[in-house]
Prior knowledge:
Blueprint: H1 6-28, H2 35-54, H3 58-75, H4 83-101, H5 107-124, E1 153-158, H6 163-166, H7 170-178, E2 182-188, E3 206-212, H8 217-223, E4 232-237, E5 250-251
Antiparallel strand pairs: 1-3, 1-4, 2-3, 2-5
Helix pairs in contact: 1-2, 1-4, 2-3, 3-4, 3-5, 4-5
Amino acid sequence: MSEQDPAAAFRIEAADLLDATEQALLDLTHDLASRDLVDTVFRGMHTLKGSGAMFGFDALAAFTHHCETAFDKVRKGVVPASAELVAITLGAMDHMRTLVDLEGDDPALEEAGNAILERLHTALGSAPEAGGEATPAAQPLPTANATAAPGGWHIVFRLPAEAMANGTNPLILLDEMRELGDAEVRVLTDTVPPLDELDPTLCYLGWDVTLKGPATREDIEDVFIFVMDDMDLSIEALESDAPPAAGAVQSAAPASAPAPAESPRSPAPRSRAPLRKACACPPAGSTS
């Protein structure tokens, strides 16, 4: 099992993601009508929020959620991509970097974050705690050349055997996919060994997901961005009227208590580069 510090691995990947998102924001200042750039910013925020929650960076996830929501409204044409909104979000990126490096609580930092969010919600035309949407002020941006599938997607994934010991929480990944649309999830138990051979630190399960909705291939790949290098992942477009894929699977059960299966084999732990592995499972009750 890799000895790399889970938080350190996340900070490395988060820094790259922040750099890419910030560059998209800078480019957006010169082309506020670009759907490609708006989508890039939105996906960056969405991934940072979900991965931050997975790794226990709850303050980062909570703060980033507001910026993600802002750019979701831009994508849907509820608010325009204004120079003011982009400038505020660029300032928010600096705050996110601080939250990535933060260890422990900092009341002063929380106050600074709240001030940024006040400006953000003002730019959106709504108070921070108002439940309503801003008054529609723009048409939806032209759709970019995203690879959406009218019939949905068939996704099969298996994490590395040592993934849960190193910290990946598959339930959070499944929750992220459910946010993308109507997801039918089945668990694959064909590699679960007999009980007397089962190592509780290893992940023996796979997951088979039929996802319906407007999600693109890029949206799905973003769910796995921090573990993609070390996992087995298949994403296939479904035909419009195709039924859910059939296979030797059974209804999803809690990943923490796999039932013994007939297969006598247990997968050998994989030894790949530690970067992009998610880290120790968050305590029960954490949210994405």
